[in-house]
Give the backbone structure.
Amino acid sequence: MIGNRVARGVAKVAGVALTAAAALAVGPQAASAQVAAQAPAVACQAVGRVSGSVAEYTLYDNAGYSGACITFYRLGNCTATTGDVNGLYNLAGWGWDNRAGSVHTYSQCDVMVYDARDCPRGGAHSTWVDQSADLRLGGVNWQNRATCVLVS
């Protein structure tokens, strides 16, 4: 009988500790917004990361910013407009053509995805994307379709 009481007491303490840990992991919305504005916390393949560089955008294998990922870096922020080109990436060079399910941008960058490796000269392309947890944008599905990324 005493053994059962002790076991129940331990279970209650463990449940409280687990609940508290879950609350800490979730954190306040302000902390979530701050983390979202920074480079991804998961271990992504890094392209162009050098001292002083900032994250430009991250592609994820799956929708919802999940799965394997690749992050492209640049020196300095992108411009605040989409009237100029800040970068152009043929994703085949990194094994990422026709693979991305979601995209997250950073440092004022926006991206336009193309389904042709010779972008921006040919192929269909998306509108400018700030970030998208699901690359099924509007009526066009861009999941597993992007072969080239234009950055502004």
